[in-house]
């Protein structure tokens, strides 16, 4: 009987912990969803747009408001680890390969709210969404 109670309590605890209030958003979004997210978060200090392309790529055109953190930099992971894990991040690269890898790194570092623009800035441009010099 004691074992049954212990198992029941453990099961109830596991169920309760799965239904917590913290939302975890880690995944890929479409360029349009990303655009809508950017528009909805204009001026929000808890939102950050990150371009993980090289500085040359970044200078050739970017999504307005993006900060460049070069995926190929020797200290890339260290730069990511210094970011506030409580903020919401939207990341992109040229086609989605590097930002997809960055998404995995950020998830492994404990970030809870990171989304990657599927297809990168190439898909963004193909949708006719704005790019700034």
Main structural class: alpha/beta
- Sheet with the most strands? 5 strands, parallel
**Low-confidence parts:** 3-22
The proportion of strand residues reads: 15-25%
Q: What's the total helix number?
A: 6
Give the second-level CATH assignment, the architecture.
Answer: 3-Layer(aba) Sandwich
Strand arrangement across the biggest beta sheet:
1-5-4-2-3
Helix content: 40-55%
Structural domains: how many: 1
Calculate the mean pLDDT score and round it. 87
Query: What is the CATH homologous superfamily assignment?
Result: Rhodanese-like domain
Predict the CATH topology.
Oxidized Rhodanese, domain 1
CATH class: Alpha Beta
What is the N-to-C succession of helices and strands? HEHEHEHEHEH
Give me the count of strands: 5
* Gyration radius from CA atoms, angstroms: 18 Å
Q: Sum up the overall morphology in one term.
A: globular
């Amino acid at each position: 009987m004691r074992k049954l109670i212990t198992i029941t309590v453990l099961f109830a605890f596991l169920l309760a912990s799965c239904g917590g209030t913290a939302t975890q958003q880690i995944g890929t979004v479409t360029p349009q969803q990303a655009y809508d997210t950017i528009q909805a978060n204009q001026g929000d200090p808890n939102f950050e747009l990150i371009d993980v392309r090289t500085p040359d790529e970044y200078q050739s055109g970017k999504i307005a408001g993006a900060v460049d953190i070069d995926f190929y930099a020797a200290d890339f992971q260290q730069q990511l680890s210094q970011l506030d894990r409580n903020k919401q991040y939207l990341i992109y690269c040229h086609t989605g390969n590097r930002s997809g890898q960055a998404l995995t790194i950020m998830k492994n570092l404990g970030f809870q709210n990171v989304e990657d623009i599927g297809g990168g800035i190439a898909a963004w441009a193909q949708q006719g969404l704005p790019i700034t010099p």
